[in-house]
């Protein structure tokens, strides 16, 4: 059983929680200010993005490619409850990344496992480094 004593401090804490919630959800466009942290690795053949998305399933995420720009979006749904403290970010998020090399769009793979979204973006053949043979004359 939760026992609450109404004091000025409790009222101020509730106001602070409301402001925090407002800013976490974002203002205006419905996209929150919370973005999942990512690591992006690059090798000769591909880029690999790893994004931390705890609690999200594949159906909660969307990945779109437009040219060299990849956009990851999703939503952390809020569970309605009477919280004593609420720190987990909720709401929609969207992140975009533009790559300097052309991508092989038909070979992109994405997997979500243990709260990590891994997106492998193979480079298009023309973007991969090539060794040029030198002819002797």
From TrEMBL:
Pfam families: HSP20. It comes from Turneriella parva (strain ATCC BAA-1111 / DSM 21527 / NCTC 11395 / H). The keyword Signal does not apply. InterPro entries: A-crystallin/Hsp20_dom, HSP20-like_chaperone, Small_HSP. This is Heat shock protein Hsp20. Keywords: Stress response. PROSITE patterns: SHSP. Residues 29-137 form the SHSP domain. SUPFAM superfamilies: HSP20-like chaperones. The keyword Cell division does not apply. Signal peptide: none annotated. Belongs to the small heat shock protein (HSP20) family.
């Amino acid at each position: 059983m939760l026992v609450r004593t109404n004091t000025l401090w409790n009222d101020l804490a509730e106001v602070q929680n409301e402001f925090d919630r407002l800013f976490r959800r974002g203002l205006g466009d419905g996209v929150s200010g919370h973005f999942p942290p990512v690591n992006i690795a690059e090798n000769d053949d591909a880029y690999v993005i790893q994004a931390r998305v705890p609690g999200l399933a594949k159906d909660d995420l969307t990945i779109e490619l437009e040219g060299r720009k990849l956009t990851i979006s999703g939503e952390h749904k809020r569970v309605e409850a009477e919280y004593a403290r609420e720190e987990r970010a909720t709401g929609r998020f969207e992140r975009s990344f533009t790559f300097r090399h052309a991508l092989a769009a038909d070979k992109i793979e994405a997997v979500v496992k243990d709260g990590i979204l891994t997106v492998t973006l193979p480079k298009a053949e023309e973007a991969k480094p090539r060794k040029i043979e030198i002819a002797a004359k």
